[in-house]
Predict the structure.
Amino acid sequence: MSVLGEPKITEFPSDAFDYTSVSFEPDLKKFGMKTLDDDTYSLLKKRVYDLAGCSPSSVSVYLNGKKIKIKNFQEYVNLYFAGKSEAVTLHDKGNNPRWEICVSLSDSGTSQQVSFVNNICTTRGGTHCNYISDQIVKKCLDILSRKHKKLNIKPAQIKNNLWLFVNCLIENPAFDS
């Protein structure tokens, strides 16, 4: 990135659709590589799929010339459960178009999350995940306590069985990294 080349700007035909195309080739020499290793390629591929899942359906995302066939966040979430016939996800866009939430059971016995703030992957979760999971846990506790009056269950017991997926747009977010 220390040496910049001239950008390639092509004329836009007047009869073409209006769009923006962004492509790049990594400077392999800069990183002491001759080709992308499998780990780097997998990371870049995941990020392309993340982008396809978090973008509006009107945005087309391509990887190596092939269109990614994910139309929305729910289809992106379903990729995590491919081949698992017992997996059930609940999806809610609610009344706020800035928040999209899917939740499923965590099969690991610990709380899991996949989340994005303004299309940035937040691998460690954050207050946006806590905000949603706390509401889900509270509602589950309310329902369970009404149905089973003698049941003594703690919020952590419910939270440890949730797999939360959040895609949100937040004005002026604060990141700890």
About this structure: The mean pLDDT is 87.
